[in-house]
Amino acid sequence: MSVLETDRLILTELKTKDAEFIHKLYNDQNFITYIGDKGIRSAQDAVNFINTGPKQSYKDHKYGLYLVQLKDATSIGICGLLKRDDLAFPDIGFAILPEFRRMGFIYEASKAVIEDAKNRLHFDNLLAITSPDNNGSINLLKKLGFTLKDIIKRDKNNEPIQLYAIYLDS
Question: Structure pTM?
């Protein structure tokens, strides 16, 4: 079932059949550098992640990370909303395979997710977090209309991360 559709993309709920793709994406060097090593070392690890992460989020919150595909069904990335215990509002997350970067795909997917958050989920605002040296994500967040709100520490390494927010006025 298709969740969101744009001119070039289809965003759908992740399924266990997407495990090989998730394994590949989550082991991309930029993913590990800027988002973190999620310990997905095999397709089975990816299945476990999909079942306990995105699928659980769809049940609990009616949103989560979505698979981003070209209209020809080529899987290129993920984009969606996450609910973290230590953040007041859901935050947008995204990642894309290297060969599809800098083509506007994640911008397009993120716009669709933001519209869905506003129109279907009726959120007033969204957050985003990124490491201070992730210029690609920072530039994308600014292009999407997010503004830097704070520098926070939320992980065990106490590394500072940037907290962005966007207000979705109706």
Answer: 0.92
